[in-house]
Amino acid sequence: MTISIQYVDPKTKTPLRKDDTAYYSETGSVYPIVNQIPRFVDSSQNYTQSFSLQWNKFSKTQIDDTDQKQSETRFFATTNWQPEELAGKNILEAGSGAGRFTRVILEKTSAHLWSFDYSEAVEANWQNNSKIAGGRLHLFQASIYEIPLPDSSFDKVFCFGVLQHTPNFEESVKSLIKYAKIGAEIVVDFYPIKGFWTKIHAKYLLRPLTKRMSHQTLLSIIERNIDSLMMIFDFLVKVRLGVLTRFLPIVDLRTIPSTLDKQKRREWAILDTFDMFSPEYDNPQRIKDVAAMFERHGAKVTFAGFVKSSAGTSAVVRGVRET
């Protein structure tokens, strides 16, 4: 049986009063509802401004369509969940971006989804998914460190492609675990450290400069140079010098779905290259270290390793909350 979950004050965990325009706490805090989305943070001055830009500009780039099912494939491979086991369950999605995985849950399962992002990407998610939600989507804007929901409320918790972009990776993991019920599962994926060579890469060599640039300027530079970079990348792979592509200031094009047409592939390349260079934080982790974080914060690890699928390879840790 699905239990109703209500928003609470993210700081005090006390119940909130609601009208058509906002949620109100007993302590006087006001959390406005803007464009039908409750806002528990002000994203105008926080570290997620680059994500606000990218997900509203590229709002549909990674949403599955009839030509590719990249998000669906990645979701079910990473979680190892089956659609039927999610029927009627309460699921928490942390860091939903434009809603690529939100769409998968709403279309492929009958689960009830609470989904949030720290950035204004929630605007894109709402535009992409509100019409198909059928009342099962509860979308809000909040910090991963102050989620406005009761602890121990969810049957499943997941967070994909987000943790490395938060200020404190372990505190983010700790926060997610406490929202799972005892016996419920938490699944995360993240950028892995594979060895000393991980940061010998154009991304990490250039990020000290690019993350301080105007996001619009950075995006313009990428758009102007993406065609030549793609051509060089493809040439190096063709002549079996793919190892050298790590020194090109462009995303690894081999991670982009091969089913995309030329224009869609270019769009995806711009998005992912901007995503490489613009975030304020980029902290890859060793899989064993993330597994240890789970154990330290009350979750028994059931899987820690790489998951391979037609959508690519992800570093994944799964755990079940014990305490």
From TrEMBL:
Keywords, in A-Z order: Methyltransferase, Transferase
Biological process terms from the Gene Ontology for this record are:
methylation
InterPro entries noted in UniProt: Methyltransf_11, SAM-dependent_MTases_sf
A UniProt-annotated Pfam family: Methyltransf_11
- Stored Gene3D superfamilies: Vaccinia Virus protein VP39
Which parts of the chain are coiled coil?
none
Its lineage reads:
Bacteria, Bacillati, Cyanobacteriota, Cyanophyceae, Acaryochloridales
Q: Which GO terms describe its molecular function?
A: S-adenosylmethionine-dependent methyltransferase activity
Name of the molecule in the record = Class I SAM-dependent methyltransferase
